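Revision sheet: structure tokens.
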Amino acid sequence: MKQQELIPHLFRTEFRKITTVLCKHFGIAHIEIAEDIASDTFLSAVETWTYKGLPANPTAWLYTVAKNKAKNYFHRSNIFTEKIANEIKKSSLETDELEINLSEQISQTASCKCCLLFAILPFQLKHK
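Predicted:
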């Protein structure tokens, strides 16, 4: 089977299986992430196989890449949760929240629009 025919065939047969395997390992709560990773795996296959040719076992290649992408995703997610999210919380607590009263600005804008309307209306009536 040629590459042009193989990738759509593998997508039809293996996409849901890869998603299922990822959900089994990482939990059904992460099904959307599993689907995204499976889609990204097929995108990587198209990009890689175009230049390097088909691997000896394309199905195994897909599962290996999907597994590695999932591990990378959860590793990055843990780093974000442990390090970056805490810093964001700390910095948001340290800064004072500013309250902006927009009621005056809204009424001024509305009155300006009315003034503009009444300024344009006589001009339009004069030129009809």
